[in-house]
Amino acid sequence: MDNQIEKTRCLIIGSGPAGYTAAIYASRADLRPVLYQGNQPGGQLTITTEVDNFPGYPNGVNGPEMMEDLKKQAERFGTDVRWGSIEAVDFSLRPFRCKVDDGKIIEAETVIVATGASAKWIGIPSEQEYMGAGVSGCATCDGYFYRGKVVAVVGGGDTACEEATYLSKLASKVYLIHRRNELRASKAMQNKVMNTKNIEILWDSIVDEIVGEKEGFMKSVNGIIIKNIKTNEKKKLALDGVFIAIGHRPNSEIFVGQLEMDEAGYIKTVPGTTLTNVEGVFAAGDVQDHYYRQAITAAGTGAMAAIEAERFLSSI
User: Fold this and answer.
1) How far is residue 286's CA from residue 306's CA, in Å, rounded to a whole number?
2) Catalytic annotation present for 161
3) Catalytic residue among 30, 98, 101, 138
4) What is the pLDDT of residues 245-294, one digit of tens each?
5) What pTM, to 2 d.p., does this model score?
6) Which of 210, 238, 288, 297 is least surrounded by CB atoms within 10 angstroms?
7) Could you tell me the CA-to-CA distances from 272 to 112, 129, 295, 305, 311 in Å, in that order?
8) Which of 141, 161, 286, 289 is catalytic?
């Protein structure tokens, strides 16, 4: 087993804007970081077509292309970017022991957790088929592309109401589709939705299918079929985009019992920092941020984590 143990000053778990930015800063600080990309190299942005709100791309950028840019930048400064995932960790003693899915053990002086979060999806085949071609999990990211168009938001909690309200300022019409006969959102958010003229709530309804047009490799949503769960009646709505807002799940399972988390599984950090309850372990990006969930804020906390890791190493 000993020949399967590798030592590093800084291990970064996860890629995406937080992981790659942490890698850029850590490698420039001569920490020689090792980064494991995880099950979805590049994170959630790899399923986003156009990113229009990340600084430095005046004409926008394709999500996977942006992640490849960040990866190359991290590698240019010496980050060892690897395929594979960390499947178990032991933060009880330092150096921390982290097991890779190929059986290797990494002993790390510091660990930056940047495993992100995953949007919860409805789970129908057409949802995946039109992902990035009219189906989105982020109104703030993609709402701009639906100016003057008709869209639907699926969900009934605060996130769904926030997304619907945000989109109502851009789209000509917003359907809010909810499987119950009352919203789960706070009263304040409910009032906003109820008092917005171009939002129409479709109660007791689920999305049965997402339909669209296909031409070669090009796809675009042009409608959805919804089903009333009380009457089983189905009807088609003509629209241009569907935003799934039934929540996010932080990718924090392997840290249960190792790091403090909130009730939803987001890793707790000291406000204004990326410090966790374990000295030498830092959390950045969506795995610790349930509020902003933006590429730019994830990148910012990635930079913070690397700076804090470097300062921690300098102090010991």
Assistant:
1) 16
2) no
3) 138
4) 998 899 999 999 999 999 999 999 999 999 999 999 999 999 999 888 88
5) 0.78
6) 238
7) 16, 39, 18, 11, 16
8) 141
For residue 57, give the nearest of 45, 69, 48 by alpha carbon. 69
For residue 78, what are its two tokens? 């010496």
Residue with tokens 């989109």: 167
Element (H, E) at 90: strand 86-90
All domains of the chain, ordered by start, with CATH? 2-118+248-315 (3.50.50.60), 121-244 (3.50.50.60)
Catalytic annotation on 286? no
Beta-strand relationship, 86-90 and 199-202: unpaired
Provide DSSP, 231-247. Answer: T--EEEEE-SEEEE-S-
Structure tokens that stand for 96 in this block: 């921390």
Give the Cα separation of 216 and 282 in Å (integer). Answer: 45
What DSSP designation does 64 have?
Answer: H
Distance (Å, whole) CA 163 – CA 195: 15
Phi, then psi, of 22 in degrees rounded to 5: -60, -40
